[in-house]
Amino acid sequence: MISLLQLKKYPKNFNAYFYRAKARIESGDKDGAMEDINMAIQYKPDEAIYYYYRGKMYSDAFQSGKALVDFEKAIRLKKNFADAYNYRGVERAKMGLHKEALSDYDSAIISNPNYQLSYYNRGTSQASLEITREQSLVSVKPLNSIQSMS
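^ thats the sequence. predicted structure below, dont judge the formating
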């Protein structure tokens, strides 16, 4: 783990904050990880991976709005960032935005055709859209199926 002495000696070392954030995530120190990733972003705001990791932390904390903002920022900074597309799709699917999620999964697959998780997530969203479509069809009765009371 990155020591406090290293960060005291080089307080603007964004990589040190990032790697310590990753270590803190692994050890379960989510608050410390969030502090460190915020410092990494403060010192290097144009690094896509930092926004991606913070987005994942927000997602884990059920803060979809903040997660979406960070995944979008990561994608703006790195256009072919398959992981960011995939996780933005996950957040959109959680919000019931399956068409938008499908678009994200497609972008992830275009960026990395071997990204199996995006294929799985795309299939899940396609199934959710189909179920929603079928439910809407079942809830509408055709006029000719209404029985008279005579």
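The chain has a mean pLDDT of 87.
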